[in-house]
Amino acid sequence: MRRRSVLPSHHDDLDKGGGKPPQSRLCLLATLCVMFWVLIFYFHFSVLPSDADASTTHPVSVATEARIARADPAPDGRVSEPDDPLLAPPAVVSEPPPATLPKEEEMEQEAPTAVVVAQEEAPRREYPFQRALKTAENESDPCGGRYIYVHELPPRFNEDMLRECQRLSLWTNMCKFMSNDGLGPPLGNEEGVFSNTGWYATNQFAVDVIFGNRMKQYECLTKDSSIAAAVFVPFYAGFDVARYLWGYNTSMRDAASHDLVDWLRQRPEWNVMGGRDHFLVGGRIAWDFRRLTDQESDWGNKLLFMPAAKNMSMLVVESSPWNANDFAVPYPTYFHPAKDADVFLWQDRMRSLERPWLFSFAGAPRPGDPMSIRGQLIDQCRTSSFCKLLECDLGESKCHSPSAIMKMFQSSLFCLQPQGDSYTRRSAFDSMLAGCIPVFFHPGSAYVQYTWHLPKNYTRYSVFIPEDSIRKGNVSIEEILKSIHPDVAKQMREEVINLIPRVIYADPRSKLEALKDAFDVSVEAIINKVTQLRRDIISNSEGKDFVEENSWKYDLLEEGQRTIGPHEWDPFFSKPKDKGGDSTNSSEEAAKGAWKIEQRGQN
Ligand SMILES: *[C@@H]1O[C@H](CO)[C@@H](O)[C@H](O)[C@H]1NC(C)=O
Ligand SMILES: *[C@@H]1O[C@H](CO)[C@@H](O)[C@H](O)[C@H]1NC(C)=O
Ligand SMILES: *[C@@H]1O[C@H](CO)[C@@H](O)[C@H](O)[C@H]1NC(C)=O
Ligand SMILES: *[C@@H]1O[C@H](CO)[C@@H](O)[C@H](O)[C@H]1NC(C)=O
Ligand SMILES: *[C@@H]1O[C@H](CO)[C@@H](O)[C@H](O)[C@H]1NC(C)=O
Ligand SMILES: *[C@@H]1O[C@H](CO)[C@@H](O)[C@H](O)[C@H]1NC(C)=O
């Protein structure tokens, strides 16, 4: 506007001056003088105004730079995080936004706070765990960022339970399974099904002690908790509850858990993060530790509901899809190699086997459970000439023989792994160990469980046939499996065989070198989890919008993804569910039924 008011007068002057012939030098000088001032005005109002416009945005960019500059030497050494709204000024919007940028609405909502924070010059908070985070930057320390501190618990929390091993199960004398550091008695190899070394009659609930003993071999243990990436609590949580599951009141069942929590909370290590860097192992299904009420008729203890346990991470062989403090680790198999070469030999053998059966199933029907598809699977297997069946409920002892089971899995291309009394089965890991491609019928049987150990893209190593299609009775498993091209099946089997090291527990008395076993994978995952939590706490971006009931969806996210949405498996995990094995109620029923698994050894 102002520029316009100047320009016309300029033209007017020019017209006036230019329209008349020059009369004197004075006149020329006057004209030049006028032009000079016109130019001054022109520059003042046409060029400077754009500068003035810019100056309204200028303070923002200065402030932004200042914030980034302060954030740069962050205590954890990271450069500015793209997911921190404080450090994502609108100025960079033209660049492709990083995948983890919060939604724009969020950024707008937080923008005013950001300005206030920047102006207040709040001193950066120091956290006691920053020293531990720093060890990861020390390049001359091979254990940097990987140290584990192990609590020295009183023996009543672990060793004493082993001494009283006859009390660990009402059905099985667990004492023989405690031999060989928890691997159990060695298996003979009369039928040539196993390899000559590394095979044991391992009980499926022995992870407590196997994991504890593997930890003793962990290469980066530390006595200095201030540099620890995570803190291990060597409590035998599974053995503890197993002692009291049948015929004991709730106070007996909860006693050791209360005792443990009281002990932990008095330790200085607890206060660093309220126990959120602690982890422990209970080699049973989560439902044994998730008693909903204090009614005596309810199942299990309530360890996983205790406030202290909600801060810790507990490793179990089957986790709850709706909870964030339990994580699934593989059931133990019968194979516990002492060196890498034993694994490679086994893998090569599984690659070259003849597999005469298209598919096979080892298990018992569940006549008492109308929603179980096991009856239909058994029928389909029995009527197919391509299926091998090992039925378990006819007093047939073969079903309990590790050698008979492994022999069948080794001669099959695909192995059916329906739910048992709960979502998961040890059998899934036994079959993978035999190089047999697992067929799952519920995502809770593996896909939302063992996300640390198995690929998130389940089609790479398994076949999924939704339970409902079997229930409706018009799906032929034989047809589905036959339709898989042999090359595709070969690719899947190769993936399964490559997964073997990750799903077995190495002999805790020695160490694998290049290979990572189920223990290594789990510890690495826990360390990553605690490290991420610590970083999130420092950058004040922790747990935004986290809905615990959707835990299983977060577990399925790929690296870098942070938000969840509707999922194709929602129907499998809708809660509550009046039918199907998914409601908390029937999960409890499942846990109660689990005694049958224990009684039979192999369900
Ligand atoms: C880095 O690690 C080495 C080897 O463990 C250790 O001697 C050294 O003190 C560490 N440096 C720092 C700054 O912590
Ligand atoms: C629970 O059982 C134990 C022994 O089995 C008994 O000593 C205790 O009094 C019982 N507690 C309650 C609350 O019933
Ligand atoms: C769990 O962690 C939170 C956050 O650190 C803390 O406030 C709380 O006291 C902890 N709970 C227990 C039982 O220590
Ligand atoms: C999953 O794996 C299959 C087979 O390897 C592949 O064809 C497919 O593209 C993968 N899907 C994703 C989402 O990566
Ligand atoms: C059988 O399967 C087809 C899809 O293949 C489906 O449309 C149909 O509803 C099913 N029939 C029954 C009785 O479930
Ligand atoms: C579970 O559901 C059954 C009926 O479906 C009911 O009889 C039982 O009391 C329920 N159990 C619990 C713990 O709610």
Describe this structure in words.
The chain has 603 residues and is an alpha/beta fold. It folds into three domains: 2-120, no CATH class; 137-332 and 518-563 and 583-600, no CATH class; 350-503, Glycogen Phosphorylase B (Rossmann fold). The chain has helices at 2-19, 25-71, 104-120, 130-134, 159-163, 179-182, 207-216, 237-244, 250-265, 268-273, 307-311, 340-352, 374-383, 402-410, 427-433, 467-472, 477-482, 486-503, 518-538, 551-556, 570-573, 584-600, and strands spanning 148-150, 221-222, 230-236, 278-285, 313-318, 326-328, 357-363, 387-391, 412-417, 437-440, 463-464. The strands form two sheets. It has a six-stranded parallel beta sheet. Helix 15 links the parallel strand 9 and strand 10 (437-440). Helix 1 packs antiparallel against helix 2 and helix 8 (237-244) runs antiparallel to helix 9 (250-265). The protein is globular and about 110 Å long. One 2-acetamido-2-deoxy-beta-D-glucopyranose (NAG) binds at residues 585, 588. Residues 9-18, 68-81, 565-581, 589-603 have a biased composition (Basic and acidic residues). GO terms for molecular function: glycosyltransferase activity. This is Exostosin GT47 domain-containing protein.
